[in-house]
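Let us practice reading a record.
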Amino acid sequence: MTDVITMPDLHVAHTGARQASGLDPVTFEVLKNAFVTSVDLMSEQILRTCYSFVIYSRDFSSALCDATGNTVMQGSGDIAVHVGTLHFQCKAVIDEFKDDIHPGDVFAINDPYRGGTHFNDVSFIRPIFADGEIIAFAQNKGHWADIGGNVPGSFDVNAKEHFGEGLRITPVRIWSKGVFLHDVAQLLVSNTRAPRQAMGDLHAQSEATAVCEREVLRLVEKYSKTTVVAAMQETQDYVERIVLRRLESLPQGVWETTDYIDFDPGKGEGLVPIKIKLTLDGKGIHYDLTGSAPAVETFLNSGYGTTHSAIYAGTKTFFPDVPLNSGFYAAVDAEIGPEGTVVNAGWPYAVTGFCSGPYEKLMNGIFELWSQIMPERAMACAFNLEYLLVGGRDARTDDNPYFMWYDWMAGGWGGRASKDGSSATAPVFGPGLAVQPIEGQERLSPVLTTVHQIGTDSGGPGRFRGGLGIEKGGTLVHATNTVVSYCCDRARSITWGIEGGLPSIPHGVWMNKGTDQEKFLGSNFSAVPLHSGDSFTRPSAGGGGYGDPLDRPFDEVLEDVIDEYVSVGRAAKDYGVIIREVDRELDQFEVDEAASTQLRQQIRADRPGWLIADPAVVAEKYRAGEIDMLDVIRRHGVILDWGTGELFPETTSEFRKSMEKRSSSHWH
């Protein structure tokens, strides 16, 4: 099924390695950095004027684009997922309105089938004119807490098509020659559950683009239109030249890997593959995603915009000092395959959950490939982005307004080639994303946070341990007509290690844990009823481990136990280090080095057999309480329903192949 919208030309046209323009170096540097400032000023404006707590927590990005829609510069604090899509959306506005664009116009768009992310991310785009000619566009994209659809927060796991996900905004004019089109704006915000908040964000985002416009016109007045326009093009060409020159010193060849989404609800259990092939041939960076699975029957699909964004963001991680604009995009090309796949789901496939689905799988797979090309920068898999949404009526006030408790957590990044992974940090989806202040959440919503702490044993074991994840729990108070939804993944395709490192822990939400009503809800669900007094808790995973955990020095394992990053029990099971607790309050522990040396020898002899143990026997031992969840995962590579203990045989087979490739094949 196809929409009337046709697939755009995804190639970003630049002159590549052409010689620098006639700008003198000083003027070029001044203007290049001034472009960054113009975007950062948008960020400062939106932070001070937005209505949404989600946007205030930095779920937004901005960009300055040239007259053709190509990105001139991103800001210094934008989140990764947005930055590779903003030029697509600017081009969509240009394509839609062509010559019918005037000074004072502002356009809105959130359409993921026109290069956007998901429906909650609404962009406002303002043309910048000088001497009657468009010279640039300013754009701000912010995540609205609700955009309509079947569930509060607009994250409906059960959606198969976009019609249940919320309002699709194709390019539309909100200001016309400086006149606010109130009827159009009212139509948009009235399709959300928080129209007053949405209207406030609409004005705040538009005004942010006006700040960028004023800054660019100040530069034009000082340096001339010709100079500023030339600098916009040269800034892109400059970045492309840097990337191409860097590639000259790197090995040439082809690298391949596969990562997975947990399952396709329409096909039962079994991991959903996302295949990535990377080629370096001295002429650029080439990706091929063909062979990835068909689109899944849930909202964990990615459109072409977000797939390209994942490719750009994953690659950019290994070029951290290079500015990000369309010059970078021009050095990277990708064959993402035909429409209808999980990485190129066209209209009308549901795509809101792309962020927890293909997006970070692509990023982590790209990390793995570049880790082989630049081993000094190697990094194992990071935790999966997750969103927990509780929505209903707030009974703390007489008018019972709608509320959306919209929460995401920090987690752990993968162990690295020379150090442990980062703990309790933002997802790779958006390193600039802030953890929402609990006090603000509790003031705005009837949800009381009961626990928010580092998760012991959540980091994947390795010579360099994965960073630690977080456990967060809450209780619903004074609310009615409330449901909870969760967008995540990696309850089955668990965060993996590399070079011999071990996996982290599975994601998933528990309701009323430790009570007679305890229930494991999993890592993707929608509209589960929640009543006042109900509690919920979930962990974020840590990062995967890097290198054989049996090579981690005794003293580093001891420090992890003292810091409560690793338990005494897992120190023995995962690292082969026997530690005796002397006085926990005084942080006094002792390593039995002789016994630990002997235990490591025993583990080295036994662990190849653990990975070929009968999965059904392993599952039975888990249900009987003879082994725990981390034994099942890290020793046996077996995947279960963590609530019931039911074995997933196909998933286990695929997960074991992944562990053999990334872990056991590197053990000595």
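A brief commentary: Residues 1-7, 13-20 have pLDDT under 50 and may be disordered.
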